[in-house]
Design goal:
- The protein is α/β, with parallel strands linked by helices.
- It has a six-stranded mixed sheet, sandwiched between helices.
- The chain starts with 9 loop residues before the first strand and ends in a 5-residue tail after the last strand.
- Helix 1 crosses helix 2 and helix 3 runs antiparallel to helix 4.
- The chain has one domain: Rossmann fold (3-Layer(aba) Sandwich).
Length: about 170
């Protein structure tokens, strides 16, 4: 990540393929950048138990228990558990994609993204590809810099006013 002073904060559901891709190889990539943004608080992950279970199941096929646990802990420690999930009526060829879509759709008030390497698995206009979300953040950053203090106040107010029954931070309510 070239510019560590990003002030944009985006809420996002992170598809498993992005998590796996971020863990492969040593070269810089959009998926690695996403997790750097997460660590710096620019992207706030949203998840539910089904998503954590899928992360565990898929990551444990490729990585050790410690590495799997560390990656999932990064997501949990920087994100919010979404507890009030609306079931979708959309058709999905792969049933494992449903939880990601439902969490994203259930968190519309946060203008959340669904970051995936497989946008064709989801209904149009419901996702952002891994590379695209980085471009969006850079683009929006230019606008936000004009009134950085107001933007940060609005974000703090949004986070402080989250429904503590629907959005749970680090396993506990606010």
């Amino acid at each position: 990540m070239e510019d560590r002073d990003f002030i944009i904060i985006a809420f996002a559901v992170i598809d498993t393929n992005v998590v796996v891709s971020s863990m492969l190889g040593n070269k810089r990539s959009a998926t690695k950048d996403i997790f750097e943004y997460i660590e710096h608080g620019n992207i706030i992950p949203l998840y539910d138990k089904r998503i954590l279970d899928e992360y565990e199941e898929v990551l444990s096929r490729f990585f050790t228990e410690d590495i799997t646990s560390d990656k999932i802990s990064d997501i949990v420690n920087h994100g919010y558990l979404v507890t009030d999930i609306e079931e979708t009526r959309e058709y999905f060829a792969e049933k494992t994609d449903i939880p990601f879509f439902e969490v994203k759709e259930s968190s519309k008030e946060l203008d959340s993204y669904l970051i995936t390497g497989n946008p064709k698995h989801y209904p149009e206009n419901s996702t952002r590809t891994a590379a695209f979300v980085i471009d969006v953040m850079k683009y929006l950053n230019g606008f936000v810099l004009k009134d950085k203090e107001k933007y940060l106040e609005d974000i703090k107010e949004l986070i402080n006013n989250l429904d503590c029954k629907k959005y749970v931070k680090r396993g506990r309510t606010f």
